[in-house]
Amino acid sequence: MYFNLTYPNYNFAHKFDENPTKNDEFENHFHMIYEMLLFIKGKAEFIIENKKFALNPGDLLFITPGQHHNIDVDPSVPYERYVVKFPEYDVPKQLKHLIKDKAGCYNTENTAIPSLFSRFDSHVENYSGIDMCGLLKCVMREILYFSCSESRPAEYAVYNENMVGIINFINENIAQKLTLEDICKHFHYSKSYICKEFQECMNAPIMQYIRTKKILLAESLIQSGIKPVKIFEQCGFSDYSTFFRAYKKLLGKPPSVRK
């Protein structure tokens, strides 16, 4: 059974493409929420930030908020997958520290995870409305529990060796007032080289990538209960007005604590 159900901040889908062609879903992009993708069949390579995974049936991809990712699918082979997208605030507290660094690809062979995904089909077929939505969310949480304890990391190749250190440096220092000059000085590269290589690797300008990561950090702090006016410095912004404009431009809303 195939379906694609969207709720505010959630998406549950079982998708099948007989002849997959390039579209927005396959191109390099990022979300402000979590995403899990269970690969059922096809021939594809998936890139998360700077890691490339050659997918096998049963592989589970886990993408955290703000991570750039895309998939390269062989159009001659049918492509089937489950996709689940969900917000950080719906992650059980006891799992938050476990999934924070969970991004990557995992082998689910001999685990309960594939059968849990198949339960989405049953719930969509047999329920509707608020009951179906509630059941889908329950299954999603079960998958999170099992993925943290049962799945095994899959092998990957580095997409661009030169960008590994830069991407790690950005993410490790995202709370600082990072500038392009800082990065050039640290790695002894020219601005033109870093900008060109980063754009080719991530399909996004490096400073745009940094701002996105800063806003994600800010959103996490805000939703933990900290007032927006108190966190802009913790995210490396020089003043609140600059932070406010960047936040609203990316998320389409002013910064506020979720009620």
How does this structure look, described?
- The protein is 40% helix and 22% strand.
- With 259 residues, the protein is an alpha+beta fold.
- The strands form two sheets. Strands 1-2-8-3-6-9-10 form a seven-stranded antiparallel β-sheet, covered by helices on one side.
- Strand 1 and strand 2 form a beta hairpin.
- The longest helix has 21 residues.
- It is globular and about 55 Å long.
- It starts with a strand and ends in an 8-residue tail after the last helix.
- The mean pLDDT is 91.
Secondary-structure map with pairings?
Layout lengths: L2 E5 L2 E8 L16 E8 L2 E5 L2 E4 L4 E5 L5 E5 L5 E8 L6 H7 L4 E4 L5 H14 L2 H21 L2 E2 L3 E2 L2 H12 L7 H8 L3 H12 L3 H18 L16 H12 L8
Helix pairs in contact: 2-3, 7-8
